[in-house]
């Protein structure tokens, strides 16, 4: 699986090798993989040097709607390679800060820096150079009167010089990357909620591949799993993770999203798709840290608010996957190379299984 930092392989008896991998929190500039798509196309040293790989920085951001002071001095940084979750009680300004980051709302006071460059007001063409920022809305926000191909290729049809045929190919490739095939001609009303979210994801990552420089891309997701059943949520959560540069997309290609921030109320999204958390409360970031530190935080505000947000209480589970292969006289075969019965299980547990051993039995036929 993705973002694996530690991996153990232990022999669990004659003939079978069980490898257990753990996916702990990670995510800073130092975790960027050499040789990823991104590092080929982008001069990392330009960003990581003095700026320490900071892609987006909000500094003392304030935003009011009428007499409602929603953001009251929000400051944080999102670095290259990070998977950040933004959580907090309802109405505390999470969607508002995403829109400020995306350049759709201008702060009343405070500053937003994109790759170290101060953004003036709303997003403009000159702001775009240096970092592509995509915002995936909670509602998916597809155009109802356009089919999937037109929705996904919308920006390219409008703004690029690519031929319709080439845009069609890019749409098909991008849809495949989010695990959708053969839906190009469907209308949004013919898609399930989870499919709509994936189409919205495809629309936010489609790229004009004829451009000389392909910039790093940050995606901002506003409650990407809201309204989905647990299985559809899992698909979207894993997709978000897989499009990150540290992983591979649904087509097995390296992910292309440099960093992402996700606003969520869902425990499973935090567990599966987030490494670092920003906790927004009453218009300010009151706590930030790695995901697993959140539930053990002694910060009184975190403890107080957690009483009212039971979904965040309790242990944030560790995630393990076990893949089983067979040791044959001619070598070890993992599940991918064997068409025989072989399986892979994933589960979450609060136990530390780093030193586990596995017992099994076999039957001959
Ligand atoms: N364009 C707007 N005009 C007026 N008020 C707004 C606007 N956008 C947001 N608000 C108000 O700002 C507050 C924060 O809204 P926001 O959507 O950012 O909260 P949130 O933390 O994302 O909430 P939730 O978790 O319920 O989605 C809310 O009271 C909302 O009504």
Automatic annotation (TrEMBL):
CDD domains per UniProt: ABC_Org_Solvent_Resistant (cd03261)
Keyword set, alphabetical order: ATP-binding, Nucleotide-binding, Transport
PROSITE patterns from the UniProt entry: ABC_TRANSPORTER_1, ABC_TRANSPORTER_2
InterPro entries: AAA+_ATPase, ABC_transporter-like_ATP-bd, ABC_transporter-like_CS, P-loop_NTPase
PANTHER family: PROTEIN TRIGALACTOSYLDIACYLGLYCEROL 3, CHLOROPLASTIC
Gene Ontology MF terms: ATP binding; ATP hydrolysis activity
Record-level GO cellular component terms: chloroplast
Any one GO biological process: lipid transport
Domain ABC transporter residues, every copy: 56-307
Keyword Nucleotide-binding found: yes
The organism's place on the tree of life at top rank: Eukaryota
Protein name from the UniProt record: ABC transporter domain-containing protein
SUPFAM superfamilies: P-loop containing nucleoside triphosphate hydrolases
